[in-house]
Amino acid sequence: MTGENTYIQKLKNRYLLRRMAELSLLAVGFGFLAYGIGNLLHFTPGASWATALLLAVAVWLGRFFQLGLHRVDERAIVSYLNRNFASLEDSTDLLLARPETLGPLQRLQQQKLFSHFEKTVEQVSWPQYWSVAFLVSLLGLSVFGASKIGWQQAEISAEMPASPILDSRNDTVDTGVPAELSESAITVHPPAYTRLGVMTSEDFNLRIPEGSRVHWELIFSGTPEKVGVIFSNGDSIKVTDSAGKFLFHRTIDQSGYYSLYWRDREQLKTTDFYKLEMVEDQAPRAVITNQEQFLEYPWQEEIAVKVRSELSDDYGLSEAYVVATVSKGSGESVKFREERLPFSHPEQVAGKRVQANLELNTRALGMGPGDELYYYIEVWDNRRPQRQSNRTETYFIQLEDTITQTISFEAGLGVDLMPEYFRSQRQIIIDSEKLLAEKKSIEKQAFDTRSNDLAHDQKVLRLRYGQFLGEEFESGIAQTTEPEETAAPENEEELLEKYGHAHDSDNEHNLVPEQQHEHDENPNPEEREASPIAAFAHSHDNLEEATFFLRSVKAKLRAALSMMWDAELQLRMNDPAASLPYQYRILKLLKEISNDSRIYVHRTGFDAPPIKEEKRLSGELETVSSSRSAYRRLEQSPYPAIERALPLIQNLIEQPPAGLNTSEQEILLAAGNELAAAAIEQPEVYLIYLSPLRALLDGQLDQEHLQTVQEAFWKLLPERTRTAGGREQTDHGLQDAFIKQLKGRTYQ
Amino acid sequence: MTIQPLFPLWTILTGFVLLLTILSWLEIRRAAGRLVLRLTALVLVLSAIAGLVIQPVWERVEKEAGLILLTSEFDAQTVDSVLQVYPDWEVIRMPDAARFPGSKPVEDYLELSALGHRIGAIAGAGVPPYALEYIPKKHFQYFPSPPAVGFTDLLTPVYQEGQTNQLRGKFYLQEGPLSLLLKSPGGIVDSTVLKEPGMQAFSLPFRPKSSGQWDYAVTVKDSSGHILNEEQLPLVVAAKKQLRILFLQAFPTFEIRYLKDFLADRGHAVAVRTQISRDKFRTELVNLPMGDLGRLNSALLAQFDLVVGDGAAYDLLGRNESGALSTAVENGLGFLGLPDGERRAYRQWLGLAGIASQADTVHLTAGASLPAYAVRPGASYEWYTVQRSRTERPVAAYRYREKGKIGFQSIVETYTYLLRGDSMRYAELWMPVLEAVQRESYSTHSISLLTDFPIYVGEPVDFRVIAGQAPETVFANDAEVPLLEDYTLEGVWYGRMWPERAGWHRLVSGERALQFYAFPPGKWSDLKIAKNQMQMAAASSAEPSPVVSEQTKTLLEPVSRLWFYLVFLLGGGLLWLAPKL
Question: What is the pTM of this model?
Fold first, then answer.
């Protein structure tokens, strides 16, 4: 190869190199341009770089193939030289040929070209677009730089919270930290009828009258994105911003608790649980101060009974009056007349505490011999929108009748409607009198025993009458009733049978199974617990209302019961003489009740169907068969979730884990619900434990929270009745030897 | 002097004689002068070799002085007194003991194994029981440190859920009053005030609300309410037991009916068999599968822990049923009788000498007064009273009959408590009696701790496994623990583990498991010292054994091999030099 030929190759390479540089500059320019635009359009950095790279490569390749650089070779260079330099006389091709392959003339021309080729070639200017490439690059760099500076500024503004900048929205200084509750004001507007003024409080724990409207005003150190409040009943309120203050209000109609929360800078903040204790408007109270509940007057034309009462209410009284009912007549012609009597002093009842008086005049009320007056005071308070009322016990005034009544047994009656207890009370009186008569002839111990037996009979009678009055299991009228075991109602009948003489019943010798037994065999425990009395009695919670009787009869019956206590007491003290006056009065009262045709007293006991005479006392048991019943009763725990959670908490105290798993969270959540229910009932005790519990559920498993929650759960578990434990021994040869030794002593 | 030959002496002597003979014969035949000198040199060489092999040693007897070991809180005056009596004794001290003139420190308890035979006295708080094992011959006298204010004893058995348990212990105070408070996880449950100086026993009742392992705490406060000390008290509370009870009654009674309902409401398994006629019964099964109670037999009675019946019901039992009941009781069943008047057969079955025909009133210690039948327990039996009246009259008691028990509850009309809604007092009347008379459960093996409370991290915990047959592998916190069988009692095994961290630990042997809590060092220090002192006092003797004062040591010092080497060189040199002279 000749030196010129080599030179042509160099020319080709130089051309390609320059073109490549131009293309690269152009591609880089377009790349920067694409990246800058991507940045300005808020592409992610990755996307911007990818776009830039793709465009640069595309531009480079597109231009490369457009210029045909892949086809450039020595001949293309020779052709270009021939076209642009006439001095080469279109003979540049000869430079590529070997001299030995040329003819003489071609060889001569080749020699001629050699002489001035180099000089000519130095003047070659290749086709280039440097300016365009530079312009594009400059543009690309400018856009890239501009976008980069803008991005960095945006990043700086986002990542440098410490540099305070003005928030254009509310002109507050953005400190970059989540907002905190800085100020608060709570205003309580009690209902107007309470006549209480507006109250303000800085404490979020509130104790407010029922129906109050509470306004909360919250100011935060920053501007939280979302503010809300959650109440214990599940209600939540989204609190809106009003000129930098967050205001909300709520009318309180139940006790509970609440908690504030707000979200700011991706953080959710909550306050403690605050107590919201509602002070209920109490019902008014009325007490008659100067009268006994049961009064009996001998017949007079006019009797004036002064009634003094004390009326009170926590906020104010609005109305009070005496409701008097006069009952007249007998049998089917009994008549009632009810009147509402205003107090004579004061005429208008108002204020928180009032002493009101009234005089009841029997003549004015039109009462005659044997008539009865029932009266009570009804009082109303000023509560809005619904007034509350209350009333006193019914008081009873009776004018003695001038007619004597006698008891007679109607022969031939299919059903004996005469209550059996009249005979029993009379029998006790007879027995008491007999005992007193025999006192001198019998020993003291026998006297005491018989007196005690009579007291027992009197007790049975009292229990039976107490049943009518809903006092089956009261141990005394003056004593307070205590909650019964669930099994108690089931055995009311048995109690009477156990204590009482059964000779008055239809099944006096227990010859046939009682119907009650069939009821016992009911495998359904719920049905088993239903008392037969429950089917007849009123199911109101009020003991006073759970009777069959009108209130007037109830008062008589209560008076009789009270005397039965006294009679029994004297008999227990082995003093039948002192007991007899009470017994006479009891009998008198019972007679009045029994003969009073204004009420219908029927036995409440079970009336067994009549037994066929041919089966009585036969002793045949063929039809009696063995019976079996099986059912399950599980011990009910009031706090099952807490019982599951307690061991879990203890484990967490022992070995604190990094976090709670799903099942642990579920257990704690269920226990938390039980705790929250207790907190509603007793916020002063359990409310403080809700925040630590929530912290646990949020994953803050530190010892303090764990121990606090454990304390709450433990405290909530009720005291239980004594349980049975188990002693376990090891089955060992020594044990057996010991037992063998013991056996010798066992059969001594 | 004695010898310690490397080989049997006869082989050495034989070799010596043979070599001497051969080499002497060779020297005699050798054509060189100075024969006597050469033979002498030969004897020297062989004697040196023989000396190396025979290894002669010097025997030296030395007298060893006794030691006094000082532990923490020792009384320096006491130590001085001991040293006056035994002036030649040396003094060593544990790392936690204060310095004493002339005392040498002992790094740990292991070093005591080399010095134990010389220890004649130990002063101070003492060493823990396991460290006493390093003193095989316990001839020492113990001089305890003066008692310090704090707990000296505390019983921590497994407590029972739903029962009034007692935390019992002893506390030493120098001046009172001090208050002890017991705290449950839910707060303070009880407290007591200790007034008189000196050792005071205390008892703090508490009723755990749930079974499991719980952290209680005991706090000591002074009269001004300032907390002097508070210690964690981890307790194990066993779950309540669900009883299986069979009631036998001739006719329905309030007593059994209410008791049945009370037990059933608390998840116990209850069966009631009421006799209608000779062979007809009304059966009520609560929390039990349907079954036939028509005829009492061993298989049926084995399903129950306790049979409760009155005299009327017992009289109606047939001969077979009475026999089955008797056999079942001998096999472990409990029978609780409800006396209802004088019935001869029933009284004899219960083992009572007499039953009153009518109920009178009994005043219980809990303040309750109830009707009860007066009973006179048979004198030929050993009775265990469960409830007694204020006048010490047994109201409820039981006796053993082989593996089972027969007891009585003489109170009647207890159901009135339920009628009044006082189920707590009703349970206090019945549950202790039912619990006491019920069938005792037997397990094939048991595991129990031998190390007293408190247990510390890094200190050994000893336990015992009693098993009818070779126990399964015992795991301590999932690590297998080797067991050592007792060489006198069959089926009794011992094991030891070292808790490595503070907290609850678990020993498991088959289905049996035992939990205990390991404290970090420093907790319950007063109790630990008191218990150490108690153990030390038990292990020590009133006076140091004279053996300690007469301790001697025989030292064996081998003759240096250098001498034999020098003799060998001398002999060899003469042997070489003699022909040249």
Answer: 0.58
